[in-house]
Amino acid sequence: MPPGCCATAAAAIASIAPPRISSNRGGSKRSQCNRGGIARAKFALPALPYESSALEPYMSKKTLEVHWGKHQRGYIENLNRQIANTPFEGYLLEDIVKISYNRGSPQPAFNNAAQAWNHDFFFTSLKPGGGKSPTGEIAELIDKQLGSYDNFVKEFKLAAASQFGAGWAWLALKEAKLVVEKTPNAINPLIWDHIPLLVLDVWEHAYYLDFQNNRPDYVSTFLEHLVNWDIVNARLDRAKAFMNWGEPDWDLFDKDADILTYEEAGIDVVEDSS
Ligand SMILES: [Fe+2]
């Protein structure tokens, strides 16, 4: 296999990768090739799940081309260079984020790993025709735990507007409770073991071409026209499958069901002759 095969394969995979149904935990995709019999993996730029012009007029094609095609690509390429020939080469992106954060003393790979993860999560948090009030279970949970959708909007706008400088605004789960959070620079809620459900990039590169320095208008546009509540519901479903969501609903269990014997269940029982 020729030198540079990973980069070639990465580009090929990025160009043909189908839109994701969900990429809430995996982050950027890997391509693989084999050098000298040792499997190496590099992260590839994930394809956008929509055309670059599909979010207009709320997010311009130019913004997406620069944000995804240059900034996100840069984080991934820098990360690949940083982790080459280190133990991180074999890790999932989410694990690199958590481990390289190093309990608050970040290792060199942290910023690019976290930015690669955050941006993949951000681009999949958007959809054409999105925004407005949520539907499904997340709508019920917002009403129940945050008071109302209007209250969520107020909290989210405050978090996004008050994040000084570059950063992110999140809706996440903290021990099965919805929380609105903000994080600076590349930090994300994974480092606290929270489970992100939705994110807005409030780095200036995310909105300057469309809104100049008017961050509040950008945040309102995101909430009213771009949020992909379908994927938020999918992420919520996935989170519930992996966390203790409280006491089981015993009504779901048939308490009167007969308990089968081994014989009735067709299980051969070997007598212990010792
Ligand atoms: Fe960004």
Briefly summarize what is shown.
With 274 residues, the protein is of the alpha+beta class. 41% of the residues lie in helices and 14% in strands. It is globular.
Q: What's the quaternary structure here? A: single chain
Please name the fourth-level CATH homologous superfamily.
Iron/manganese superoxide dismutase, C-terminal domain
Q: Describe the strand arrangement of the main beta sheet, using strand numbers.
A: 4-3-5
Ligand roster: fe (ii) ion
Provide the number of structural domains.
Answer: 1
Shape: globular
In the CATH hierarchy, what is the class?
A: Alpha Beta
Low-confidence stretches: 1-27, 32-39
Query: Beta fraction of the residues?
Result: 5-15%
CATH topology: minor pseudopilin epsh fold
Instruction: Count every beta strand, where a strand is a DSSP E run of 2 or more residues.
Output: 5
Which structural category fits the helices and strands?
Answer: alpha+beta
Mean pLDDT, all residues: 85
Helix content: 40-55%
Our Rg estimate from Cα atoms comes to 22 Å
Series of secondary-structure elements, N-terminal to C-terminal:
HEEHHHHHEEEHHH
Number of helices: 9
- Kindly report how far apart the N and C termini lie: 58 Å
